[in-house]
Design a protein that fits this description.
With 340 residues, this protein is an alpha+beta fold. It has three domains: 5-70, Uridine Diphospho-n-acetylenolpyruvylglucosamine Reductase, domain 2 (2-Layer Sandwich); 75-228, 2-Layer Sandwich (Uridine Diphospho-n-acetylenolpyruvylglucosamine Reductase, domain 3), CATH 3.30.465; 236-339, UDP-N-acetylenolpyruvoylglucosamine reductase, C-terminal domain (Uridine Diphospho-n-acetylenolpyruvylglucosamine Reductase, domain 1). The chain has helices spanning 31-37, 41-45, 95-104, 123-126, 200-206, 214-228, 249-258, 276-282, 311-329; strands at 5-9, 21-28, 48-51, 57-58, 63-70, 75-80, 84-90, 129-130, 133-134, 139-146, 152-156, 177-187, 236-240, 246-248, 265-266, 271-273, 289-290, 293-295, 302-305, 338-339. The protein has a five-stranded antiparallel β-sheet with strand order 6-7-12-10-11, with no helix packed on it. A four-stranded mixed β-sheet has the order 1-2-5-3. Strands 13-19-18-17 form a four-stranded antiparallel β-sheet, with helices on one face. A hairpin with a 3-residue loop joins strand 6 (75-80) and strand 7.
Length: 340
Amino acid sequence: MIQIEENINLKPFNTFGIAVNARYFSKVSTAEELLELTQTPEFKNEKHLILGGGSNILFKSDFDGLIIKTELKGIEVIDESDEVVIIKVQSGELWHDLVLHCVNRQWGGIENLSLIPGTAGASPIQNIGAYGVELKDVLKEVEGIDLTTGEKLTFTNSECAFGYRDSIFKHQLKEKIFISSITLSLTKKNHLFNTSYGAIADTLKAMNVHEVSIQSISDAVIQIRKNKLPDPSQLGNAGSFFKNPVISFTHYQSLQKTFSTIPGYHSVNQEVKVPAGWLIEQCGWKGKRINHVGVHAHQALVIVNYDNATGEEIFDLAQQIISSVKQKFYITLTPEVNII
């Protein structure tokens, strides 16, 4: 029997640690429980929001509706050969626990995505990525439930319309689909290691790793992230607050004339991805604190809640950062965090 609670404090359920209340709150641990929930007056008559690990969300105020907390669990091998293993992962599994599960079994493909917070169900929405690897590189399909009809749906990789930190679930299907599971294809041999992005190669060298492995890459990424990113249990944050902007090559060349050290990574269509953290740091925000909020001292992409900040305070700081970057570089930063 599904249970619906009222006036629940969401502070334990978002990594920013924002103390706002949800009018209604319900946990679902099976697809059947979700379908039962969709038949209740609280679901039918109120707006609703699906919440995973709460690591990519900023609540600006109380949520006057129904929060659906996904807690579906399970990792299952559904197909396997000598070279590849196909696994189905329930949406409530913590992403980093999934990565460690695979690393411990020497299944390759997501080791670069170690220590990313959140749940498996949230991973395709954002097309999570780090250190040269994105979810779309290993995802086969997404299973979900249409919240209007209750119909079970399956989306192939191409149907997810993946982009940089983007997917169909952020646009046409936003808040219309409950993601129940994801299916991944991982390697058992002939792994394609990616150590060229960021500080992985240097970290492996410092760790005296002479033969690269799934385990060593995961260990290196964990070390890098722990050194750069604050632990949400100690300092409220949602990881990278902004996407890395993609600008035209012409715009990039123009900026190089004034800012000769501006980093850039060439992508498709004569475009260049510029690290948002570098832009923010150049505007003097790194390590800066304003009352209860600030920009982290080791990573300018991370906005932190120092002392019981409100969502509005964090949002206001983000807007100030966006304004200063636009004024200096003529680049408009876009939040990666879902702002409610």
